[in-house]
């Protein structure tokens, strides 16, 4: 006799994979290569988190996010950050308008942060005061302006870009701001074989038009499916120990961490590991998280939550190397016998 709950879970996972693949395929009609980045952006969106995209100019970061907005039929806005931008330019402000009776009244004009999908372009060019305008929206899904509180409509996702090379005129994001991004994705140069296709798509007469293959209601339903994926105790233990492995002085920290790391991941890192792993499990056709799902999202989840000390920076150690070392040295817990 079949289990109705198991059948329903399999059906949910199948619908999830089919919708995910249709979105990925549509975005890939415009984006050439960058398969890992596209997968990472979709994983974070479906897990209910925000994404920080880091890469030099010209690699398609802005195109990726705008293409995703088209494929999902979501309200989309772009904020081009500059040093002279003020918090009101992000959140909105009250303006004086003429009323029907000939008088004047204050009317609130909402800012570009009020959208389903927000592209925060070159976020490290904004001052800390303006960067902090994103904090409440990203964490609380709401804006507070004077006595007014605006609930942001779900799905809500901030995808920010930054250039890792330029230092002059930029303001590096503080740890509190970085911790609010579920993933940090590194956008690298295209493969040699991708250049020809990039040139053909961008220098010819034909412009790729994307179709809407999903919508806000479907994305919210997929997020609900993600939350329902169970996490076995041994997988939960693995996520906890993986985060503790980035913390100097912990029982699970390898020598590399104790020597070069100043601060490790907070508990938000463990939350992000499990949410990302739930998406990975569904894409693999399973309705339960496995340790390999957690390991698969370790780099994008933890690379921006590890702060290197002076010795690590001077010796050229990267946070990816730290995460890889923790993964290599951490024993994988075995599933308890049923």
Question: How many strands, which pairing sense, and closed or not: the largest β-sheet?
Answer: 5 strands, parallel
Strand order of the largest sheet: 2-5-8-1-9
Question: Do you know the CATH architecture of the domain at 229-338?
Answer: Orthogonal Bundle
Round the Cα radius of gyration to an integer and report it.
22 Å
The count of helical stretches stands at 16
Estimate the strand proportion.
15-25%
Distance between the termini: 20 Å
- Give the CATH topology of the domain at 229-338: Helicase, Ruva Protein, domain 3
Average residue pLDDT: 88
Structural class: alpha/beta
Uncertain stretches of 5 or more adjacent residues: none
The level 1 CATH classification of the domain at 229-338 is Mainly Alpha
Counting DSSP E segments of at least 2 residues, the number of strands comes to 11
Overall geometry comes to globular
Order of helices and strands: HHEHEHEEEHHEEEHEHHHHEHHHEHH
Helix content: 40-55%
User: CATH superfamily assignment of the domain at 229-338?
Assistant: Magnesium chelatase subunit I, C-Terminal domain
């Amino acid at each position: 006799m079949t289990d109705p709950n198991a059948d329903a879970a399999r059906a949910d996972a199948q619908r999830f994979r089919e919708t995910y693949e249709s979105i990925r395929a549509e975005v890939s009609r415009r984006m050439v290569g960058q398969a890992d980045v596209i997968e990472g952006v979709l994983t974070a969106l479906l897990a209910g988190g925000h994404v920080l995209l880091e890469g030099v100019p010209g690699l398609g970061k802005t195109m990726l996010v705008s293409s995703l907005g088209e494929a999902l039929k979501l309200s989309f806005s772009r904020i081009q950050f500059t040093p002279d931008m003020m918090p009101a330019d992000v959140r909105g402000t009250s303006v004086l308008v003429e009323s029907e009776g000939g008088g004047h009244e204050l009317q609130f004009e909402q800012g570009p942060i009020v959208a389903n999908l927000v592209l925060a372009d070159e976020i490290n060019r904004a001052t800390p005061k303006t960067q902090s305008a994103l904090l409440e929206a990203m964490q609380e899904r709401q804006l507070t302006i004077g006595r007014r509180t605006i609930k942001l409509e779900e799905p809500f996702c901030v995808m920010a870009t930054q250039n890792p090379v330029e230092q002059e005129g930029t303001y590096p994001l503080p740890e509190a701001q970085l911790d609010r991004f579920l993933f940090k994705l590194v956008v690298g140069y295209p493969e040699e074989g991708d250049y020809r296709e990039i040139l053909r798509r961008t220098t010819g007469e034909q412009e790729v038009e994307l179709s809407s293959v999903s919508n806000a209601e479907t994305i919210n339903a997929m997020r609900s499916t993600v939350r329902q994926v169970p996490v076995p105790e041994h997988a939960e233990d693995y996520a906890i120990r993986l985060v503790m492995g980035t913390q100097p002085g912990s029982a699970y920290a390898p020598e590399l961490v104790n020597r070069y790391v100043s601060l490790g991941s907070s508990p938000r890192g463990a939350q992000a590991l499990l949410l990302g792993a739930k998406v990975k499990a569904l894409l693999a056709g399973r309705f339960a998280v496995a340790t390999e799902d957690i390991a698969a999202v370790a780099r994008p989840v933890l690379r921006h939550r590890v702060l290197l000390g002076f010795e690590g920076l001077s010796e050229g150690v990267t946070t990816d190397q730290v995460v890889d070392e923790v993964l290599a040295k951490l024993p994988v817990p075995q599933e308890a016998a049923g």
